[in-house]
Write a structure and sequence with these properties.
Cytochrome Bc1 Complex, Chain A, domain 1, 14 strands, six-stranded mixed beta sheet, 448 residues
């Protein structure tokens, strides 16, 4: 969405020699109302990135009110009780950009503006975090309901992986698990959501002590700290109903589900429960994912990913294949690879190549104030420390062939995964996505 340059001097500071310490200069403090604040000064370009994370996401929703966290995210761009214009309109008028996204454990808001407008935008950000509900009206709710449906239609219809991604979240866990509620399911719940639901969720989750603020770019830190105290510091804190972090594999269900659809390629998706971010085995599985991802000699395309959350993690292998190939054979091939890596140490030279590549990728991603602000906020969200870049990279330095083999054996080979097959069927009607179907559309229930 943006391509702000970080500058040669800044990149030189962030790209040290392999033996050097890699960290981002910053200062941080916590306001009396509990809001944690991180400031990173960078005068390379006359812009400022403001990154707000609220520790509320899909896991905080309840049955019958799914997509409530997503709806609140959209409504955060509307007009508050004090603002003259909708937040998005005001940011655009000031020459900036603003975005947001809802995740399992948190909701992320990112804004980039010319540094000359920083004081105004800090007031706007504090205003919507502290006093949004007073400006919301029924028309706002109706408009954003349809925007969310439109986003859902794009996600679940534009990819051969969509049916698998749709059915996975409520297949892996029992209904008592906070991650059970599906990210792209239950759009029919949107019709029943009310302004009272929105206000209630906002009151319970959007307290300053349940959020963090990261600011990076062209500013005077002392001046901005005072501005933050004058704006965000006036938001009253309130009790927040925090959910406990689930343990690895808690309420995990091992299943095999088949989805039939008219797709150009077959898909086999396999997912295991894994450690949380920074826990033993997390870095090893990150590196294993990098080792096996890509196009294999037989033409199959492998994609692997270790998603590390605060409570637990999920390791996913996705293989797309010629639809003439039997999905069972593809699954056997996945198990062969897992078994091979769980039994034999990978070569040190190969491991070093992956380690170096991941280090370069991590550091190169810190391109501009928006990326730096988001990374600092991510570290605080996941570990409670903003001084985590060197520790993050150190996790990969500490991976050995033996520790990788043990992580694969203990977390993948010895766990029963969830498996989803997306199989070609010209006669099968398209899968149903409740709440997204157009009237009169013929479809089949996903996974049946």
């Amino acid at each position: 969405m943006r391509a702000w340059g970080i500058g040669v001097a800044m990149m030189a500071a962030l790209l040290p020699m392999p033996s050097a310490r890699a960290d981002i200069d910053h200062r941080s403090f916590t306001l009396p109302n509990g809001l944690h604040v991180v400031l990173h000064e960078d005068h390379t370009t006359p812009i400022v990135a403001i990154d707000v994370v609220v520790h509320a996401g899909w896991r905080d929703e309840v049955q019958g009110k799914r997509h409530l966290a997503h709806l609140v995210e959209h409504l955060m761009f509307q007009r508050s009780e004090s603002a003259e214009r909708d937040f998005a309109v005001e940011i655009e008028r000031l020459g900036g950009t603003a975005g947001a996204s809802t995740h399992v454990e948190h909701t992320h808001y990112d804004t980039v503006i010319p540094s000359t407008h920083l004081e105004r935008v800090l007031w706007l950000e504090a205003d919507r975090l502290g006093w949004l509900p007073g400006g919301l009206e029924a028309d706002d709710l109706e408009a954003q309901r349809e925007v969310i449906r439109s986003e859902g239609r794009q996600r679940v219809r534009d990819s051969i992986f969509a049916p698998a991604l749709y059915v996975l979240p409520n297949t892996m866990y029992k209904e008592t698990h906070p991650y059970w509620l599906p990210a792209d399911g239950a759009f029919e719940d949107l019709d029943g959501l009310t302004l009272e639901d929105v206000r209630g969720f906002w009151e319970e989750r959007y307290a300053p002590s349940n959020a963090s603020l990261s600011i990076a770019g062209d500013f005077d830190p002392a001046l901005v700290e005072q501005l933050v105290r004058d704006t965000f510091g006036t938001i009253p804190d309130r009790p927040t109903d925090l959910r406990r972090e689930p343990k690895q594999g808690a309420a995990w269900l091992s299943k095999k589900v088949t989805v039939r659809a008219d797709v150009p390629q077959g898909v086999v998706m396999v997912r295991w429960p894994t450690p949380a971010w920074g826990k033993p085995g997390d870095a090893e599985l990150d590196m294993f994912a990098a080792l096996i991802s890509g196009t294999w000699p037989d033409g199959r395309t492998w994609s692997a990913h270790q998603r590390s959350l605060r409570g637990s993690g999920e390791f996913t292998i996705t293989v797309s294949h010629d639809r003439r190939n039997a999905p069972s054979r593809v699954l056997e091939g996945i198990w062969d690879v897992v078994e091979a890596f769980a039994s034999v140490d990978v070569g040190r030279e190969r491991l070093q190549g992956v380690r170096s590549s991941m280090r370069r990728t991590t550091l190169a991603a810190l391109d501009g104030p928006a990326a730096v602000a988001a990374r600092l906020n991510m570290y605080w969200r996941l570990s409670g420390s903003t001084e985590a870049l060197d520790a993050d990279l150190g996790r990969y330095r500490d991976v050995s062939p033996g520790s990788m083999r043990r992580a694969i054996a203990g977390n993948l080979y010895n766990w029963e995964p969830v498996v989803v097959f997306v199989r070609y069927s010209k006669k099968a009607p398209p899968p149903c996505f409740p709440g997204l179907e157009l009237k009169g559309t013929e479809c089949a229930e996903v996974g049946k």
